[in-house]
Amino acid sequence: MTAFDLVVRGGTLVDGSGAPSRTADVAVRDGIVIEVGRVPGKGEREIDADGALVVPGFVDLHTHYDGQATWDNRLQPSSWHGVTTVVMGNCGVGFAPALPKDRARLVELMEGVEDIPGVALTEGLSWEWRGFADYLDVLAGRNYDLDIAAQVPHAALRVRVMGERAAAHARANASEIAEMAALAAEAVEAGALGFSTSRTLNHKSVSGELIPSYAAGEDELTAIAAAIGATGRGVLQLVTDWTDETIATDFALIEAMVAAAGRPMSFSLGQNPASPERFRAALDFLTEVNARGHRLRAQVAARGIGVLLGLDCTLNPFTANPVWRTLAGLPVAEQAARMADPAVREAILAEGTGPARNLIGGAFLDRYELMFELGDPPDYEPDPSSAVAARAAATGRTPQELAYDILLSGEGTGMLYLPFSNYVDGSLDGVRDMLAHDFTVPGLSDGGAHVGTICDGSFPTTLLQHWVRDRQEGRLPLEFVVARQSRATAEAVGLTDRGLLRQGYKADLNVIDLPSLRLHRPEIRHDLPAGGRRFVQRAEGYLHTVVSGVPTYTGGEPTGELPGRLVRGGDLMAS
């Protein structure tokens, strides 16, 4: 008779606590870690992990699978990268609560803010809900390849309560604020992990309308925060622009919200090349606020923040070119064949390139000094000498000509990488400083979003491959990185039952061959509802991924098991 459901034997255990690695077995029963160490008892399933790392499942606290989770059981690409729990409903956008009259507006908002095709959302969303509790119930009826958790989004709340006044960015009156606060608290009591909001000019609907939460006043945000705090559970999440003009106001608002709630809060942080040292003020602010007894974290990216450019992507350097626009609706192979015609090439290049400012990243489409050909494997910290502008100058061509040729390569599948944030002076040193700070956590992968422009659900793999193993200078310790991507991210959103491989914790884990870990170049698939396109990105080196004690992927391929479930806040073990 077997003693356990699963035993992972002889691996190098990095348990998520930050403690030094050691050789150990991990025994699992009923989805819980039962023993760690030398385990004599047998398992119904056994995994030989000799020579491999055994680490907790990764927790990605910043995704946008809000739509995909209603029609798909496999939340790829995240589940290909060791992620066993995702948190969605970030940046104030989502699909609940929603009255029938508001559905189109929420779809347009998600399409514009997160670059998820509106036709796919319209086809895929069942709209079997009105309130947030109903939405959670729909998710609870489905099985997944990882666990999911949701936050209640501010934009949907505002539209639900204020209607057209929300879209017009009117200040909420006292009764509207009270209703939003009550709805947010109800959502948290029903199982939402928390509340998210956006105050960035980058977040616009597909029609160019600013996100409804942009102009919300401090009275509104602190009232919602206080109502959530009164439930005794829940977290807060915010994204803002961090400009020189707004940073002091942002600091004051964030501290007012976290103080009103008495609950954990996080905000998004990156390095803006226009003011490359400003992020350090935010790091100092983090230290000060935590010293005052609040629980505040910054979510930071594992690499440059930018976009992928290609003929089958949302953007390419010729997006705004009127001649290219006449070809834009053709299948990619046909488009590339037409573009290879010398007369077409001459006509397109004669019109030149320029920005497409209504799309995230579109303002940088003529910044050839920041564009790099994306190979396989992709290089996310490229040498500036390999930029399109530098390569073109070295060969006597214009940057437009070289970019054109790269896009046509591989029958139109060539891609360019354009990091417009975090990649300052050709380096990710600023990213390292953010990752290493005491009060930051890895985040901002946007898994499930920006499906035609980025594919950052692979951030956990970048942390291990680039920051632990490959970077020549400034590598980060393995134990530190694993702890940050598992236990620290779990704690930041109140998921206190996971992120550690210790007795009594949820049995989510990865077995990883670190020397062979390798990212592949992202690729486009047309597998969303209505044939919508999206980026996916595979990796090698994940030998096994386990959710609740059940192997979900072996060698990167699905086992057929779907043990993942909706996680409701408030039902977890005490920390």
UniProtKB/TrEMBL annotation:
Leader sequence segment: none
Transmembrane segments: none
Highest taxon in the source lineage: Bacteria
Gene Ontology MF terms: hydrolase activity, acting on carbon-nitrogen (but not peptide) bonds, in cyclic amides
Alphabetical list of InterPro entries matching this protein: Amidohydro_3, Metal-dep_hydrolase_composite, Metal_Hydrolase, Metallo-dep_Hydrolases_sf
GO CC field: cytosol
The name this protein goes by in its record: N-acyl-D-aspartate/D-glutamate deacylase
Organism whose genome encodes this protein: Prauserella marina
